[in-house]
Write a structure and sequence with these properties.
Pfam families: adh_short. The protein is an alpha/beta fold. It has a single domain, classed as Rossmann fold (3-Layer(aba) Sandwich), CATH 3.40.50.720. About 40% of the residues lie in helices and about 15% in strands. Strand 4, helix 4 and strand 5 form a beta-alpha-beta unit.
Length: about 250
């Protein structure tokens, strides 16, 4: 599997939102480096292909039904991971959603849903992971997936941008709180990669105009985040916590 690096062998990683897009990619990156994977998503049936693909390449993974907004569901996912592999010592809080459109027209229920998944869900996921890592005295790694929209203005993305800014600062505070407890927590701010969430938008004329405004006038390749994810979840990042790592090909410049 992968490039021969096995620096995550022996680690157990839980990835939320793993059924597609970035979450599935992150899971493959960690599995290729030797981690055993707990794949979390609301629809467990969608995880089967990824689980089988990882197994086919010599890795180990289980799929678990996981609603990140529900604390009991989050705990159950960690329980399943512990039963299968032992203590989860690596977490990627990736599950997220978006509601586009003018803020003046945004239904408040939609706003609340974005905040529930993107902020409450991240908090519940990383808190439960940290509790267990600390109890097990594990060398913990937690990675929160934020966005370049957390720090730059993106018209029509008020709820999404606010949620990503919230988890960026949440992550920095938690990193400080847990710095002396054996848990490294960092925040990844990706630029735009074509995924299920944005493919339709970037196929429109307005989407093309957005790309044209970026210095390099392109979306990032699917593997653009691989190196950062592997580093922040691996042993080489032992002195890195509370960092906000932007990988965006200059899109936010």
């Amino acid at each position: 599997m992968g490039n021969g690096e096995r620096d995550l062998a022996g680690r157990v990683a839980l990835v939320t939102g793993a059924s597609s897009g970035l979450g599935a990619r992150f899971a493959r990156v960690l599995a290729a480096r030797g981690a055993r994977l707990v794949l979390g998503a609301r629809r467990e049936s969608l995880l089967a292909d990824l689980r089988d693909s990882i197994a086919g390449e010599g890795g180990e993974a289980i799929g678990v039904a996981m609603d990140v907004t529900d604390e009991a569901s989050v705990r159950a996912a960690y329980d399943a991971g512990e039963t299968a592999f032992g203590t989860v010592d690596t977490v990627i809080a990736n599950a997220g959603m978006n509601m586009e459109g003018p803020a003046l027209d945004l239904d408040i229920a939609a706003f609340d849903q974005v905040m529930a998944v993107n902020v409450r869900g991240v908090f519940l996921t990383v808190r439960e992971g940290a509790r267990r890592m600390i109890a097990a005295k594990a060398d913990g790694r937690v990675l929160i997936v934020s966005s370049i929209t957390a720090q730059s203005v993106s018209p029509g993305l008020a709820a999404y941008s606010a949620s990503k800014a919230a988890v960026l600062q949440l992550g920095r505070v938690l990193a400080r709180d847990w710095a002396n407890k054996g848990v490294n927590l960092n925040i990844l701010c990706p630029g735009y990669i074509e995924t299920d969430l944005n493919a339709e938008w970037f196929g429109t004329e307005a989407g093309h105009k957005q790309i044209a405004k970026w210095p390099r006038r392109r979306l990032m390749d699917g593997d653009a985040l691989d190196g950062a994810v592997a580093y922040l979840c691996g042993p080489a990042s032992r002195f890195v916590t509370g960092s906000v790592v932007t990988v965006d090909d200059g899109q936010s410049l």
